[in-house]
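Re: that backbone. Tokens:
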């Protein structure tokens, strides 16, 4: 450890900050994680309403089977056994897509587990497009191999050099002559990372799809339990998490980082500071002149993914038991691009005879504009009324698909403003930086900054989701250690 700077401060205790902290603590660094909220976990955290755990940012996970990418990450972090999961797709379906759109006529597609079954399902439903489907599957299989082999992390440089599939997936589908219906099915995986298919780099699309086709899972315990597992693991390795500690400033002298200052005025020193939060938020924490105007300009201009509105409700379990797959209700345009979607999950709840119904849809940002200058808990009655009215509309829509809900009780609904205030994501962006083809250059290498000792981590540096975010942590470790040391010290 002689040549390695010792004290590391990590800003943010989401899965990005905590995974980063565990890796570095395991390598012998003295790690402290600072979290503004009273509880650690960021978007990982679930919350309790009426005795029922409501999920925030983890609804299902991909690639946790032996030898697969997330399993390799969990094994390395030492958390696999402490996070019980159940496999999805054993009855043949992971996701059911219901297309109900005036443009493409109603139809249904089931996303199964496994690449071969997926190919078979596509060919059965789109018999005239066999050759296109084969080409599409060939590139998804290739990405899958690269993903699980972790080619990117062990490559000599630090760029996302696997991006030989940087062109937009929409353009590829156009070139292949894909029909609007097939396009609408293929458009869904890019929506999981918040990017419209027309502008989603093929690699990101394929990575998202491959990760779930490889194997899909649900947490058996809550997101808060998962956060607690990560915190315990960090503590076992000698790391610390300090909550209710909002970082206000990153301390920089002559373009070298020296620590952080909290909102309370207290300063903590560290020769490495890792901000596992959004880069636009980091920019505001830096002193004037700490970075070049060109860097500032690049970061300021980054476009972010949309936000999400979520409803949690409890219903009678006998009439509406758990559904072992997710359901997407999708509306598309004439070309097969997604205009809007609803995500439904029915899960057994902690409360006897009740099912937790969760509905996620786009944030509908304009609805919340009157409250944009307010903070969570201080928005008043009218906001609650608008929120509940919108939640009821979504529940009514759901009843049209699933039948009327017995003993329905709305537990909670949260808006883009909630996400914004909870984790400081700009405008409540759900998946952070928009990983689109049109801003590939502007969003490259986001874990690197112009300030010595200051790095970024979290969902914004590489890709969102648990896989993307933890991969981002490893990629920031690679940047700190250098590719050769990384290869020597980190065996995944
Ligand atoms: C509604 C929703 C559903 C999702 N569903 C899934 C899913 O099913 N599967 C999946 O894999 N992914 C899913 N995701 C994505 C996944 O949750 C995220 O990619 C991931 O959790 C991001 O982790 P992070 O550490 O980068 O950020 P965050 O979890 O946002 O953590 C950042 C942390 O930094 C803290 N912080 C911010 N500013 C400061 C400051 N100044 N000082 C101190 N602390 C600070 C915040 O409070 C927060 O705790 C979902 C996301 C959303 C929003």
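Recovered sequence:
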């Amino acid at each position: 450890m002689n040549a390695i700077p010792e004290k590391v401060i990590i800003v943010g205790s989401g899965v990005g900050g905590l995974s980063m902290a565990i890796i570095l603590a395991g390598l012998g660094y003295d790690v402290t994680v600072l979290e503004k909220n009273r509880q650690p976990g960021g978007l990982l955290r679930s919350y309790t309403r009426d005795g029922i755990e409501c999920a925030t940012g983890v609804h299902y996970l991909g690639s946790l089977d032996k030898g697969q990418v997330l399993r390799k990450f969990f094994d390395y972090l030492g958390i696999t056994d402490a996070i019980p999961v159940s496999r999805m797709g054993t009855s043949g379906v992971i996701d059911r897509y219901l297309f109900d759109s005036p443009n493409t006529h109603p139809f249904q597609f089931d996303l199964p587990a496994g690449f071969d079954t997926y190919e078979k399902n596509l060919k059965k439903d789109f018999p005239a497009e066999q050759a296109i489907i084969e080409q599409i599957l060939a590139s998804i299989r290739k990405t899958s191999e690269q993903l699980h082999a972790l080619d990117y992390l062990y490559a000599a440089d630090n760029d996302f050099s696997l991006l030989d599939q940087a062109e937009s997936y929409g353009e590829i589908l156009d070139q292949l002559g894909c029909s609007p219906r097939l396009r609408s099915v293929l458009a869904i995986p890019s929506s999981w990372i918040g990017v419209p298919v027309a502008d989603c780099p093929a690699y990101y699309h394929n990575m998202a799809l491959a990760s779930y086709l490889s194997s899909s899972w649900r947490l058996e315990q809550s997101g808060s339990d998962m956060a607690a597992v990560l915190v315990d693991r960090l503590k076992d390795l000698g790391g610390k998490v300090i909550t209710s500690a909002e970082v206000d400033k990153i301390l920089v002298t002559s373009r070298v980082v020296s620590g952080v200052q909290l909102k309370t005025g207290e300063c903590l020193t560290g020769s490495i500071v890792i901000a596992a939060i959004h880069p636009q938020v980091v920019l505001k924490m830096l002193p004037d002149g700490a970075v070049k105007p060109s860097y500032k300009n690049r970061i300021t201009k980054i476009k972010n993914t949309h936000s999400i509105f979520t409803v949690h409700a409890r219903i009678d379990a006998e009439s509406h038991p758990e559904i072992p797959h997710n359901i997407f209700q999708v509306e598309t345009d004439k070309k097969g691009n997604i205009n809007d979607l609803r995500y439904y999950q029915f899960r057994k709840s902690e409360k006897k005879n009740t099912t937790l119904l969760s509905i996620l849809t786009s944030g509908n940002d304009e609805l919340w504009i009157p409250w944009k200058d307010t903070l969570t808990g201080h928005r008043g009655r009218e906001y609650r009324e608008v929120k509940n009215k919108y939640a009821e509309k979504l529940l009514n829509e759901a009843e049209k698909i699933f039948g009327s809900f017995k003993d329905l009780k709305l537990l909670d609904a949260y808006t883009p403003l909630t996400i914004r205030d909870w984790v400081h994501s700009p405008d409540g962006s759900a998946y952070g930086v928009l990983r689109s083809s049109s801003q590939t250059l502007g969003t490259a290498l986001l874990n690197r900054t112009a300030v010595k000792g200051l790095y970024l981590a979290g969902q914004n540096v590489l890709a969102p989701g648990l896989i993307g975010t933890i991969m981002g942590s490893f990629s920031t470790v690679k940047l700190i250690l250098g590719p050769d040391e990384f290869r020597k010290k980190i065996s995944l």
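The chain has a mean pLDDT of 94. The two ends are 21 Å apart (CA to CA).
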